[in-house]
Amino acid sequence: xxxxxxxxxxxxxxxxxxxxxFNAHDLGAFVATYADDAVITGVAPEPIVGAEAIRAxxxxxxxxxxxxxxxxxxxxxxxRWVVAQEQVINAGVATETIATFDVVDxxxxxxxxxxx
Length: 116
Hints:
alpha+beta, six-stranded mixed beta sheet, 32% helix, SnoaL-like, NTF2-like_dom_sf, Nuclear transport factor 2 family protein
């Protein structure tokens, strides 16, 4: 079944929805912003592939009330790529991150994080 709401979102809106869910520690809403076969790199030693792996990886992290993220700036590259400069904050310590998101049909197909 196609999520009409997701299809209608812009790439920036999708990334914002992902950020909002992350900061709300809403695992279901967070995972829903990713495609079923999405790939995330740069947050674990090996790529995280697929919705269930994303759920398993982020579940313990999103249980941490001291974890949050702020997008300092972002740019749309083409119609579907968002490149964001982020501050990931854990227990008051911020880590600068550059994140790229490839958004296809309103869901993140690929995400890559590069930590400073």
